[in-house]
Every structure is written in C-alpha cells, then in structure tokens.
Amino acid sequence: MAGIDFKQPYEFSFAKVILNKKLESGQSVDVEIKTDEGNNTVLRDSKGTTNSFSFTNFGAKKSHIFYPYPGAQSASTIAVFEDLSDIQIRNIGAEIRRFEIWGKPLRGDQDIYK
To answer: Dihedrals φ, ψ of 38, to 5°?
Structure first.
C-alpha cells in the first residue's frame, strides 16, 4: 500500500494485526511503516527480535500489537507523520483479517519534516 495522506499530523502509537486463525508453527507477520516518500521510518520491522509476531515468540495467538521497540529510534526514524508512503506487511503463512494503525492527532501547525 502506498500514498495515504491524513491531512493532519499524528504521533504514532501502535499498529495492530488481527488474524482469521491463530498462528501455527512456521507462521509469522512483520510490519514496517514509512513516511515522507519513504525517507523516514515510523515503525521499523521487528524481524529477529522478541517483538516479532511469530509462532515461535508468541505461540498460537490471533492478534498482535506492534509498538515501537527500544532502540528503534534513529536519525531516519520518527514518531510523527501526516502521510504514509509505504506500508510493508511481511506475512508468512498467516491469514490476515484486519490491519490497523493507531496514532494521536496533533495540531496542524507541526513542522515534522525538517
């Protein structure tokens, strides 16, 4: 998915994935979200971390919340966005029913792209 414009800035809170069925062995879902034409990362993928939504890490679960995890902030990682230019969902074998992005609305006079 690409090019979603929200017309106002938001502070990223979390992303949530809901599956049709519980995860089974070998299945996983990972997410990466970018803004500013892909120049800045709102949520870095969690592959290879304990936050990665996989059967190995969480067992037979049906939903997962992706919070920004410690150490994810860097020069190109920001928590504020007004558009999402790239959402990558890496799905290995799971049946995704719904994907949500949650954020807190901010005043429109925020200069987020410096």
So the answer is: 85, 5
Using alpha carbons only, how large is the chain's radius of gyration in Å?
A: 15
Residues 6+ apart with CB under 8 A from 104: 10, 11, 13
CA–CA dist 114, 97 (Å, integer): 36
Cα separation, 54 vs 47, in Å, equals: 9
| Beta-strand pair 96-105/4-19 | antiparallel
Residue spans of beta strands (DSSP E) within 1-39: 4-19, 28-35
Any idea what DSSP says for residue 56? H
- Report the C-alpha gap between 96 and 4 in whole angstroms: 20
Residue 75: predicted pLDDT: 52
Q: Under CATH, to which class is 4-105 assigned?
A: mainly beta
CA distance 13 to 19: 20
pLDDT tens track for 49-85:
776 899 999 999 999 999 875 554 555 567 888 888 8
| pTM score | 0.82
